[in-house]
Specification:
This protein has one domain. The N and C termini lie far apart (46 Å). Helix 3 (77-101) runs parallel beside helix 5, helix 4 (114-131) packs antiparallel against helix 5 (134-150) and helix 6 packs antiparallel against helix 7. It is mainly alpha-helical. The chain is built from seven helices and no strands.
């Protein structure tokens, strides 16, 4: 399915001679709001590993904000960089969760089945990234990230599991909104013109807030 970020997102692009104002202002504003919230968590968190993880969230959202401000024409840089940042978050999460749980990483060579499954998902994702792209690239990338968390949920203390569930629910909602956007954007815009991509941005903002709060609470009880 053909879909390329950010030019195919379901918010009208403002055509301007110069990029002085955002091409997609509503999505840009939501991303700026998310950056403000995440910077608050960055500054109130004391654990250096958790701060690094939250910083990867900030990088992801900052790139999204930039991508809604400026559209780089005839280039897949913006979608490919977004994909790379998903992996940066995944790697940081693989490091941080065992650090907070004081356990060996389940993705170590001696961990059993989790490492082979992760590598299988990684190889499949790389194949999709190279040969398929589009919406399937988004689905496969988010699947890798979701597996990193779901496979380690047993290591989370009970006090933070509800925050994790909130993050997963909003991540799943974000994916559903992405699929709907790719399939039905033109139909929705004909029925009622609206920057529908903002709904996806708000959902992803909530997912990051739940994750940031989860790790903040977790590190605070160490």
């Amino acid at each position: 399915m053909s879909f390329e970020f950010p030019k195919d997102t379901c918010e009208k692009r403002e055509e301007r001679e110069r990029d002085v104002f955002p091409r997609q202002p509503y999505s840009f504003i939501v991303n700026i709001l998310s950056l403000v919230v995440l910077f608050v968590y960055l500054f109130i968190t004391r654990d250096i590993f958790v701060r690094f993880l939250i910083f990867t969230f900030i990088l992801f959202q900052a790139w999204h904000a930039f991508s809604h401000f400026v559209h780089i024409e005839n280039s897949t840089l913006q979608s490919n960089m977004t994909h790379f940042l998903i992996y940066l978050i995944a790697v940081a999460s693989i490091i941080v969760i065992p650090h907070l749980a004081h356990t060996e990483s389940i993705f170590s060579p001696s961990s059993g089945i989790h490492l082979p499954i992760f590598l299988l998902l990684f190889v499949l994702d790389m194949w999709i990234l190279i040969h398929v792209k589009g919406l399937w690239m988004i689905i496969s990338g988010l699947s890798v990230l979701a597996y990193v968390y779901v496979a380690q949920v047993h290591a989370m203390p009970k006090e933070v599991v509800n925050y994790f569930l909130g993050a997963i629910i909003f991540l799943f909602l974000t994916l559903l909104l992405e699929i709907n956007e790719a399939i039905n954007c033109e139909r929705m815009q004909r029925l009622y013109p609206f920057p529908y991509h903002v709904l996806l941005e708000v959902s992803r903002l909530m997912s990051f807030v739940f994750l940031a709060h989860m790790f903040y609470v977790w590190q605070a009880r160490q």
